[in-house]
Each structure stands twice: as C-alpha cells, then as structure tokens.
Design a protein that fits this description.
The protein is mainly beta. It is about 0% helix and about 45% strand. The protein has strands spanning about 5, 10, 20-25, 35-40, 45-50, 60, 70-75, 80-85, 90-95, 110.
Amino acid sequence: QVQFVESGGGLVQPGGSLRLSCAASGFTFSTYAMSWYRQAPGKERELVARIGSTGGNTDYADSVKGRFTISRDNAKNTVYLQMNSLKPEDTAMYYCKVRSFPHWGQGTQVTVSS
C-alpha cells in the first residue's frame, strides 16, 4: 500500500539548516510529482514545495523561496527538502505527499528556536 516515511526533522537555531527526507513506497514513484506540506500548531496545512516527476520542474511557497530546495532521487524513491536560513516561523510538522493521493505519512517535526 502507499506509504510515506518522513525523517530528518529536529531542533535547530534560527539561521540553521536541516535536510528532510521522505521515503515513498507502494506506487510507481518516478511517474508522480511530489510535494512537501507543513502544518504549524493552530494553523492550516500549507503547500511548501512541489517537484515534477523527473525533477525538472519545481515550485515553492513565497515564504520559503530562496531558502528551501526540493529534490528527488527516483532510484531511491525518495524526495528531499533542503532547508536553509531557517526562521522560527518555519516551525511545523512537515509531510510529503502525492497531491492526488489521500495518504499522509506521520510527518517529521521541525522546531526553529534559540
């Protein structure tokens, strides 16, 4: 069945970096665009970044443009989110997903605090 397993979150100081990973299984990974979402406490889930099936097309939320980079390795069925210059407002649970699928993983917590 479809599964997403996110990892790489943690506690980091403002200005720091983290690299999130998401291992996907249960579908033909290389044929689907992948997205990263995040949800902060008391806020709605929001789309952070999206990457096309071959990695050629990427889109970012305005709030993370120039700081976050999405990438993928189709040989490993894995999508990544490199997060630089982190801010306290980036604190959230981060999830990866195929937009058209109903499945969500357990997420990985990112906390940016001094």
